[in-house]
Amino acid sequence: MDYERFAPLVTPHTATITRMAAALVGITDAEDAAQEALTRAWRAWPGLREADSTRAWLMQITVNVCRTWRARSQSHGDIDYLDTMIPAEGTPLATVGANEHITALDLRQALLTLSADLRQIIALRFYIGMDSTEIGDLLSEPPATVRTRLRRAVIQLRRALGDGRQTIPAHDTPARKDA
Amino acid sequence: MPSRFALDNARDDDIDGLPGNARELYHRLERDGADSREIIAQISQRLQKRITQLSATQIAANSADANQEPEAIATVNVLTSPPHAIEIARRAHRYTLMRRWVPVLAVVAVVIAFVAAISVNAGLRAGTPLLSQTPPAIDLRDVPLTPVATPGPAARPLAQVVTALHRQGNCSPVEPSSYFHVGDAVWVFVILKQPAKGHTISVQWFVNGTDVNPPSADKTTLILGDNSASACFALQYPTPGKGSVKVYWDRPANDADNNPYDPSLMATINFAVLPVGYGTPTPRSTGMAVPPGRIASTWLCQ
Questions:
Q1: Does A61 touch chain B (CB under 8 A)?
Q2: Per residue in B138-196, pLDDT tens?
Q3: Does B5 touch chain A (CB under 8 A)?
Q4: Which CATH number fits domain A3-72: 1.10.1740.10, 3.40.50.300, 1.10.10.10, 3.60.10.10?
Q5: What does pTM read for this prediction?
Q6: What residues of chain A lie within 8 A of the CB of B90, using their CB?
Q7: Of the partner residues A35, A40, A151, the one whose CB lies closest to the CB of residue B47
Q8: Do B54 and A127 make contact, defined as CB atoms within 8 angstroms?
Q9: Which ipTM did the prediction report?
């Protein structure tokens, strides 16, 4: 493939590459991993024959890079995508001042009650921003299955929040400043 | 009009099959994940810039191959980062090693600092000036007292290459010199005959013949913009030795060898990096090698 076609064919997939990298190595390392994937794609670009295969080809490179990345960083086991977003269990909610924060912590505490696979679906959809097709690519599942699991996850989360001690509507309640 | 909290790819109709109270939760999740999605979107935008830069580098290289004349009027200096997968991998590997060795290195650094402090104290007490230390054995036969560049095959657009101790304003050399001390910034100024928009100037730094280029290519490469007819680069050498810098014109990304007849080579300029406190010597030869230094930092002048 001619190098002049690299930008027009690859640029539309940068968001997917980034999300895939974030899902595989975490948001913190996503940029470096995605850059490395892009560089590899650039070097291997002359070997790509079909323009229609660009997306799948880029995804394969990204997955390979991220696997190597994780092996290099010695981070074995599955990534908990919400590691950096969900506070540890038992974090006192009273230390947080604003209603929005309490609501967010409340939500994230409830997320911890979900099983790992449902939490993973929630994370990929809402925190990484993948759609069901991308999640399906990542987990080797049909998009319809992903959507079913996502629906189940949201309903279970709703139940978990309903059983909780403080559930504050996110937007309907005006924010107030605590003393 | 969707808010910034909305998922940007919500083509799945996830929400339609949900009961009413779960829909409200769906939107809460959308809002809660907005920040991390925003970070990812910003990364994605930076990746797009990277793609543009990669393409610009290649196009510039192609232009050079076709012997196109540079445009007469040009403007901005834009940083570019040609592909360096090997360097990126090397950098990541180096960081991993650094993480492992940081505690050990910290202890060693403390010990060295302690010994150095005692040595200095002892030297001062004995009234021995530090300048009398034996100078290191560095082969300085190729280092003139004033900067002299050896032109390469791609020297045609070049007006002047010079090394200097300081920079003033926008790429004006101050105190041109071939002799520097450890910790000094070694500045190299590349001045062209005329602006050359879209062409790339890159440098490769050496100490005692060993490549000591920093891992990040954007510190050693400039793509010329409007009215750009000069560029300057700087490197800080933490160890003494015979240094040299090679200046390249539209060097292809896959050209990594050190061939003196490289068609992209504009010029080579040699200089010496001396220990701190050691005055500018008369060039002499002892033929000894010095271990390669490590990059402390780099600057670019735009």
A1: no
A2: 667 767 777 888 888 888 888 888 998 888 776 778 888 888 888 788 888 888 888 88
A3: no
A4: 1.10.1740.10
A5: 0.42
A6: none
A7: A35
A8: no
A9: 0.73
